[in-house]
Write a structure and sequence with these properties.
single chain, alpha+beta, Arc Repressor Mutant, subunit A, 2 strands, about 50% helix
């Protein structure tokens, strides 16, 4: 990340889901897993828009797989979290944990 910034909620969910599913996941399974975990539909288009933003920030990297006849000869684009992305996830977790602990009536345990 060129500038220090915090992750948005959806971006954080995407990064965490990529980490959960492992390297080299592509958009459709990512969207399905997010839908399952959130309990509501997640549009594949919104996932790909967020993936593009995350890649521009250097938080994920992508690579093209082999083209397949099932996809009309198009290749799948696989994503993985970069070291920079992992640092951003950890920093966001640290900040959010600290914020939760400062709320009145919250048990820090």
């Amino acid at each position: 990340m060129r500038e220090r910034g915090y992750l948005g909620e959806f971006e954080l969910m995407i990064l965490l889901t990529i980490l959960r599913l492992g390297d080299d996941v592509y958009g459709v399974p990512l969207s399905k897993e997010l839908s399952l975990l959130r309990g509501r539909d997640v549009a594949v288009g919104s996932v790909y828009a967020a993936l593009d933003r995350l890649e521009l920030k250097g938080l994920i990297a992508s690579s093209l797989g082999e083209s397949t006849p099932e996809r009309g000869g198009r290749a799948k684009r696989y994503f993985r979290v970069t070291k920079q992305g992992l640092r951003a996830v950890r920093e966001t977790r640290r900040v959010l944990s600290r914020l939760w602990k400062t709320l009145p009536g919250e048990d820090p345990a």
